């Protein structure tokens, strides 16, 4: 065989190997990692937890299992297999969602659970946020291999619009909320939205979970202005922002999800759409007068 033929044979072999690797990668590809917070250097090892937040390893596992047991069948119905990574010993203050082909992964870290601001309900909201990247519907983050992930604001909205309502449904929420100090604006919003004491209590509890997580962001970023229900973010985006909204904007989103009175569907479908951001939500022109996604991240034109 002459040199030119050897070169052609080598190129064919190389191309064949490359094609095989690309095909394998397409079937087992890693698709985007989404997290509740921006990447940070915060670390809270075991032993630095504050007892006041009620989070220990048993509660960590209980909350994760309680939420994911509800949503694993929904993931399966959509063609995925939910993999939950519980990393209690890991000091990372974050949580994430990603996909490897048909494996839909959420990873929960002990460092975040041990943060002084994170209550058990706040931690449940974080689990819901990560599931929201997989199941929260439009608007989605565009990606090279497709737009599987609901964006950050939508994942926040999903957490209180759907996920926490399902998770809290089995509890005596009126009794739980009676032990909380509910800010007047949250109480008023819930009481004006829902007709029953049970619904009002779930709304208040979800809002308080959102406040817990918002204080995590506030503390982590060393901000000087505390997030409050009484001071919504007045900014308006020209187009929907897929990134993490500002802290006050995120609290506004948790609050609006809590007071959106669209009923939670029964069965294995949350009634949300991967293409239509209005479906299953409160929006301008819908029968619902409140509970709209805040304009500080969501543009209604998208």
Report on the architecture of this protein.
This protein is an alpha+beta fold and 302 residues long. The chain has one domain (27-259). It has helices at 3-28, 57-77, 110-113, 120-135, 152-168, 173-178, 184-193, 197-220, 247-259; strands at 30-35, 81-87, 95-100, 103-109. The chain has a 4-stranded mixed β-sheet with strand order 1-3-4-2. The protein starts with a helix and ends in a 43-residue tail after the last helix.
Helix content: 40-55%
CA(first)-CA(last) distance:
61 Å
Low-pLDDT stretches are: 1-28
Number of helices: 9
Rg on CA atoms, Å:
21 Å
* Biggest sheet character: 4 strands, mixed
Count of the domains: 1
Number of strands: 4
User: What gross morphology would you assign?
Assistant: globular
Q: Could you tell me the mean pLDDT?
A: 89
What percent of residues are in strands?
5-15%
Elements, N to C (H/E)? HEHEEEHHHHHHH
Main sheet: which strands, in order across?
1-3-4-2
Backbone structural class: alpha+beta
